[in-house]
Structures are given as structure tokens and as C-alpha cells.
Design a protein that fits this description.
4% strand; homodimer; DNA-binding; two-stranded antiparallel sheet; Arc Repressor Mutant, subunit A
Chain lengths: 143, 143
DNA sequence: AAAGATGTAACTGAAACGGTTACAATAAAA
DNA sequence: TTTTATTGTAACCGTTTCAGTTACATCTTT
């Protein structure tokens, strides 16, 4: 399975908020830029708000990013919008046979290895920030 | 989203085939060890066969692993059983607005970064082999 | 021919995804 | 105070994937 497009949409939202910081940023505007429905954006806004990454002005509209972009990592965004049960990247089959020597031990054997892969991926996500996106976006826009 | 349990089931299958190599390994046996349905196993067998990792004896039954376990990586198994469109880990939203400076460039900006994360994860999967699983499983079983 | 296995089609229920409509709640402006 | 613009959220929808299940054709050996 793929990581849902909520992740790239959320990053796109941050890019909009920052790029057009002179204007009030609404869900309609972002929906138009991303190419989706405003309600999708508002649901994402709620997830990002719950994660403490933004503040949303009800009624009047407008979004404020709560931290400098360099202090918001891809992992922060990923965790905010991606719903993986127990934060587990791998879904382990749930009923291995305890009477079989393989079934009884496969979990012990695999858990460490799978956690290591997940941890490596999360470290990589953590090494990229929205500040990097801002910087690269400015370069592309000015081309 | 999570990586499907087909991945851990497939590794479990290899562990069965190797651990019980004295006997003929059938889909019924593996289904019992994994705790699922034989047809699930047979579908996985087809995917692993298509990837060239095993040979399945039709009619008579039995599975042969085509390479030494140390030469089969988690990435081989992952690619064999996980169906991600275009091998892309991240699902990019598909209709960014070309008229918006952000929408027009977001793909350029993110592609490299997302590919890097994916590549890192794949490298980590590639560093673990079924030989490692065999070794650790033997330790656990003999406890 | 019988037995035992794989290969595969067809179906199911559940969950997640992305989207859509509708509307209540809110805040500011007129 | 009314209007306007916006967010918040519930209730759907169609699609896809997942894991499972039944049924049965096919194959190989006995």
C-alpha cells in the first residue's frame, strides 16, 4: 500500500500558507491550488491543528503556522495526517499458530528487523523540513 | 496506510519451507502455521514464483526455494508481494493547479525528497535477508 | 481411476481513500 | 443587527484494497 496523498497535500498546504503569507489563506484557495475539495482541506487543517502545527481562525478564516518552517519536519506532517494503527508501518499477520515452532517464534524474530526499517525511514523523514521545501520552491518559482 | 500482512506472511512461508525442509511443504500446512486460508497461501506462492524466488510443484505439491536464503532480501520479498503502483511509496495528489506557482512546482520540489526517503527504506530492506531470519529463528526455537 | 495437491475465478465483508453535499457555528464587516 | 464569509462536521458516495472463503478445473503420482 501507498502512503496516502494526504501527506503531499499537507505539505502543499504549508507551501501555500507560507508563499501567500500576505493574504488570508482559506480552504477554498488551497483546494484550488491542490486540485481537490475544500472539505478535504478542512479535514487536513483539523489534523494539523490537532498536531499543534497550525492554528486556524474560525469564522474569519486564515491559518497561522505555529513554528518556524525549519522546525517542522516531514515526520511531524506524516504523523499528523497518516493514520497507521499503533504507529506500526508493517501490518503483522495476527494469528500465527502457537503450536508450530515457526508460528510461535516468527514475531520475536521479525519485530526487531521491522522496527529497524521503520525507524530508518522515520529518521529520514525527520531530516527533511518544511524549510527545505520553502527554499527549493523559491528556486523553482524564480526560474 | 500500513504495508500489508502479505509481507510478513511471505517471510513466514519461507521460514516454514526451510525449517521443515525434510517434508513436502503444502499450502495447507503453511496456512495452518500462519493462521489463514490455504488460498491466501497459494496466491502468495504465485507472487513469489512470478518473482523467481520459488518453484512450486503443481499436482504433487511442494515448494523449492531457488536461491540460498542469504541471497533473498526483504526487499525481494517486499517487491514480490506488495502492489504499489509504479513502485511509488508515496501517493502524490494528482491534480495540482498549474496556474498556481505552488501547484506548478510542488512536484519538482517534493519528488527528490520523497524518492530519497523511499530509497533509504529500500536500502534498509535490502540489508536484511532470509538468512538472518533463519539464524535468529534457530536461536529462538532452541531456547 | 483415485487421491492429493495446485491454480484460479468468483464472491464476500470490512476498511480506507478521496470526494461531495449540506448545514450549523462563528467572527467580522456593513 | 443583519449580512457575508468562513470554518467545523456529519452524512453520505463510489472505488479500491485487503483478507478470507467456496468451488472447481487442472495436474501429477500412485
Amino acid at each position: 500500500m501507498q502512503i496516502s496523498s494526504r501527506f503531499t497535500m499537507a505539505i502543499h498546504m504549508f507551501a501555500c500558507i507560507d508563499t501567500f503569507k500576505e493574504q488570508k489563506m482559506t480552504s477554498d484557495f488551497m483546494a484550488a491550488s491542490i486540485g481537490t475539495n475544500p472539505v478535504i482541506i478542512r479535514k487536513l487543517l483539523q489534523q494539523l491543528k490537532a498536531a499543534g502545527l497550525i492554528e486556524v481562525a474560525r469564522g474569519t478564516g486564515g491559518v497561522r503556522i505555529t513554528r518556524p518552517l525549519e522546525n517542522i519536519t516531514f515526520l511531524d506532517v506524516y504523523r499528523a495526517v497518516e493514520c497507521t494503527p499503533d504507529n506500526e508501518l508493517f501490518h503483522f499477520h495476527e494469528n500465527p499458530n502457537e503450536k508450530c515452532p515457526v508460528g510461535r517464534n516468527i514475531h520475536h524474530v521479525l519485530d526487531d528487523k521491522l522496527n529497524k526499517v521503520q525507524k530508518t525511514m522515520e529518521n529520514e523523514l525527520e531530516a527533511i523540513t518544511l524549510g527545505d521545501v520553502k527554499k527549493d520552491l523559491q528556486e523553482w518559482v524564480s526560474k
